[in-house]
User: Fold this.
Amino acid sequence: MQDYGYLSVFYERMPDLLGKLSEHIFLSGISVLLGCLVAIPLGVLLIKTHIRWMKSLTFNITNIFQTIPSIALLAMIATVLGFGTETAVMALFLYSLMPILKNTYAGFDSIDPQIIQSAEGMGYSPMQRLVQIEIPLALPYIMSGIRLTTVYIVSWAVLAGLIGGGGLGELILAALSLNDKPLIIASSVMAMILALVADFILGKLEKAFTKSSNTEAQKI
Assistant:
């Protein structure tokens, strides 16, 4: 057990804390990014095709991942991919799908049909409507889903330490094995601060997109 205090640990172990923090940011960021790359286009596809069974099947599958306990999902994926960062990213990616998909679908579904009809009357092609009107109007909903997902993923990424996936979780586990209470607190605080910073930044972006969306709707 180390002899530093609860405040001095931030100075004594700052290189370790910053190194694991950068790993934590990578784990969380790449997982949410992959979730966006899959869930947003999938949400657009579901709202455009209007195939009820496809929507039901997709939402049921993505919802299953939300019901599996985090440790259980990590264990199942680890049996296939082994321990390490790839397993952690895969698990976090699967957890990110549902909220982003749900909010993307809700965002497009909330668009006033009269706005779409007005755009058609103005000669917009389907692709122009999607890119210039529908996506901007749905962005506040999409950003809300990304914001919520990011905060959750930052928290869940701590569990990546259980399978050697990196991040602040590894530092917390190492500190627990040594009964190093200051390092446990410091690592946990860093994770909480990261979640709060991510929530703050994405909250600002969400408000900006909401304002832009309202302006876009008034133009049509």
